[in-house]
Amino acid sequence: MPNVVLRKMITSVEEIFHEGGPVPASSVRRGATVAIIENPYAGRYEPDIQGFMEDLEPLGLEMAQKLIDALGGADQIEGYGKGAMVGEAGELEHGALWHAPGGYAMRQLLDGSNAIVPSSKKVVGVGGRLDVPITHINASYVRSHFDSMEIGSNDAPRAHEMVLALVMSTGARIHNRAGGLSAQDIKGEDGLR
């Protein structure tokens, strides 16, 4: 199995106070941790790539913990998502290798998170951007937490790199009023409701 070669890691947090409406009692924070790594399969077709998912597990845990710390602790997190961008010498399937190590890392560190971790991925050139979807950590149908965060780096991914991202939020959209299942009404039985 190939080694994970990390070039750069970026953690960013944005704090939202309002979006033109009344200022609520507390702000909402969204954060992302992004790792830029070498793509060990770039430039060729490799039939057996699943082993690299296991190699990515420690990186996933490191990124998830870094992001949890940046957002004030696991008890603050209400939403999450993940994403991957693959440089031009790679293929979309290489980004799919991030599904398990990225998602399970967050679920392992966020006690009681039952919802599937939403994701997005694409092949891009240097400076590409990706909107990473966010849903509630315990119930995917909580509409107030449907959100996204744009991630990227001005110098990545280079052709033989991948950008792996984890995103989290501390609450619902700041002025959510689109209805649907409320966070306080989650039953927590199936990760959906």
Entry summary:
This protein has 193 residues and is α+β, with helices and mostly antiparallel strands. The chain has helices at residues 51-70, 92-96, 99-109, and strands spanning 6-16, 28-38, 79-86, 119-123, 129-136, 147-152, 161-169. Pfam families: AA_synth.
The helix/strand order is EEHEHHEEEE
Could you tell me the radius of gyration in angstroms?
Answer: 17 Å
Beta-strand share of residues: 25-35%
User: Domains counted in the coordinates: how many?
Assistant: 1
Low-confidence stretches: none
The CATH topology comes to: 60s Ribosomal Protein L30, Chain: A
Q: Fraction of residues in helices?
A: 10-25%
What is the CATH H-level superfamily?
A: BB2672
Features:
3 helices; 7-stranded mixed sheet; 60s Ribosomal Protein L30, Chain: A; alpha+beta; globular; 19% helix; 7 strands; 193 residues
